[in-house]
Amino acid sequence: MRSKLLQMLMAQQGKFVSGEAISNYLGCSRTAVWKHIEELRKAGYKVEAIPRKGYRVIHQPNLLTKNEIKAGLTTKYIGKNVVYEQSVSSTQEIAHRIASDGAEEGTVIVADEQLGGKGRLGRPWFSPIGSGIWMSLILKPKIPPQQAPQLTLLTAVAVIRGIKEQTGLHCDIKWPNDILLNGKKLVGILTEMQADPDQIHSVIIGIGINVNQDFFPEEIKEIATSLKIEKGEEINRASVMQSIMVQFEQLYELFLDEGFLPIKHMWEAHAITIGRRITARTITNSIQGYAKGITDDGVLLLEDDLGTIHKIYSADIEF
Ligand code: BTN
């Protein structure tokens, strides 16, 4: 009931809803409506009540539970099913498990804290309680497995757009999937797949966003940042997450209808790697040269000083 009421109030985007309209919608008495409003207030919502006008939400608490994520969400299927956990080892692990148990496309797993957050190349991902967005999205696209990396690039564009919409901040992409703000890492994306050689069962896209951290551990404090540090104010995590899901759904539908090309152009517009002299460090060696662009499968093309073009599938990039 509280979730339904919240969704109704949030959908009005700050406009008043009459007590009568709420009681009709919820199928309960006006006294019951008032009790539910009191419950919301106890949970940290500021709800204004004016006689003959009704109720409106004027402040949301910075929570990331199922109710907050779903309230006012306008997507068709991305985030329609949300699994929220307060503390987990990794949202990726839960996503893998429920994807093989038949979770539907668009299911999102989100946690307030990860004790074993996973980054790329087997690195840990710092995921402290209550301050970031730690989420995994389950997709079931009917595309060949070799095209799955394109979804990582699509995700980067969706995240950048969502962040811009909610904060006005402009981020950059460092190939393949680091999102930087003022040169420091703000977001990491980890794409994993359950597939046969010729068929995808599920793609699990893990997104970690540093939102309201004030500090980072010694070992990453020079290279990591948060939206709060850059914007100078606390940011509502649920609103950022909603904007990203809306942007994701639009881009995903474009991708399924028209293929990767329009997404590639959008990605290139944000990429700071392309056209620059870089060093690509892989596990076995390091290559210096000009980043010429990406292929349709998201592979980086690097031209070395002898003019040889190298295809880089996975590496750390330095400028
Ligand atoms: C990177 O190394 O840049 C990728 C980091 C991805 C972190 C996210 S947080 C949510 C999801 N769960 C994880 O354990 N990892 C991803």
Describe the structure.
GO terms for molecular function: ATP binding; biotin--[biotin carboxyl-carrier protein] ligase activity; DNA binding; transferase activity. It holds the Pfam family HTH_11. InterPro entries: aa-tRNA-synth_II/BPL/LPL (IPR045864), Bifunct_BirA (IPR030855), Biotin_CoA_COase_ligase (IPR004408), BPL_C (IPR003142), BPL_LPL_catalytic (IPR004143), HTH_11 (IPR013196), Transcriptional_repressor_C (IPR008988), WH-like_DNA-bd_sf (IPR036388). It comes from Anaerobacillus isosaccharinicus. This protein is α+β, with helices and mostly antiparallel strands and 319 residues long. The protein has three domains: 58 residues, Arc Repressor Mutant, subunit A; 205 residues, Bira Bifunctional Protein, Domain 2 (BirA Bifunctional Protein, domain 2), CATH 3.30.930.10; 42 residues, SH3 type barrels. 32% of the residues lie in helices and 28% in strands. A hairpin with a 2-residue loop joins strand 7 and strand 8. Helix 2 packs across helix 3, helix 6 packs across helix 8 and helix 6 packs across helix 9. It binds biotin (BTN). Biotin (BTN) binds next to helix 5, strand 5, strand 8 and strand 9.
